[in-house]
Amino acid sequence: MPIEDLEKAFQNKIDNEIKIEPRDWMPEAYRKTNTRQISQHAHSEVVGMLPESNWISRAPSLKRKAILIAKVQDEGGHGLYLYAAAETLGTGREQMIDDLNSGKAKYSSIFNYPTLTWADMGAVGWLVDGAAILNQVMLCRTSYGPYARAMVRICKEESFHQRQGFESLLVLSKGTDEQKAMCQDAINRWWWPSLMMFGPKDSESTNSDQSMKWKIKRKTNDELRQNFVDMIAEQIKLLGMKLPDPDLKWNEEKKHYDYGEINWEEFWSVVKGNGPCNRQRLDARNKAHNEGAWVREAAIAYAEKKKNKQTAA
Ligand code: 3HC
Fold this sequence. Notes:
The protein is an all-alpha fold. The chain has helices spanning 3-15, 28-47, 49-53, 62-87, 93-101, 119-139, 145-173, 177-196, 208-213, 221-239, 264-274, 278-291, 293-312; strands at 249-251, 256-258.
């Protein structure tokens, strides 16, 4: 079948909401951009374990420690789901992980910020996982089947992540003056980087147009960002705290909150590897990968032994 007909039939499936599966014909560019996005998403989950694990040994109670351990473990599982989904497009996990560890592959800018106080655990759960949920609920309807299905399971766990973060901040917001100040400080530091999670503004988004046509994305970066601002601007009232944006104001005409300009220079600088913790995060990932080499070797040796036993029998 001529390539034009294949492409036409492919777009027809997309337009008719038929999921694209691993064995289906797909344009190489569709395969490439899904591999890019899904592997980066997986990298984000795995690197995202680092800022929070920093507080597991310093959690203020056994309950908070148990909750945080569960959340960090969830993120690791999300990474495995997503690497498995990305592998169905033909790129092996080793390659993807090498690309992360060498600094070639991107992961979400948000994880290159430090977690300075316990209140950061609440701000990360509420804001970072809150932003991730908005994006991931949309991705439950992405056109590539394995990615959409991985998202359904991940979103169920994300909701717990966001709730536990908000609840932790709620406790602090009702606490001593020092706890209130710690809560507000964490919100001040995590608000703008959370807005950056949705990507560059639509006018600078290199992938969005095509990703919208292929229904990889259902909403643009700015649309999702606006949904997030509208949601958090209401939720923060329950905390009695303020968002660090003097331009945040309800716009009755637009029925949305207007908000201030994001520092795009900071965004691109962090994406390019110059954020506060980029080096620390990659060093930690490389250290874990190198220290885990014996586990991979043992698993391969065991599989070989099992295979030889079966062939000898
Ligand atoms: N951090 C790092 N890079 C980013 C970025 C960010 N916050 N936002 C965009 N970029 C990169 C893009 O990857 C792209 O570069 P590339 O072409 O080399 O990959 C470039 O900036 C231009 O951005 P685009 O808008 O054109 O890119 P996309 O169309 O891919 O949109 C996105 C960006 C909305 C983040 C999209 O990739 C996406 O939806 N990804 C899946 C969700 C995801 O990865 N979330 C990250 C957080 S996961 C998380 O928080 C887990 C939770 O459990 C804690």
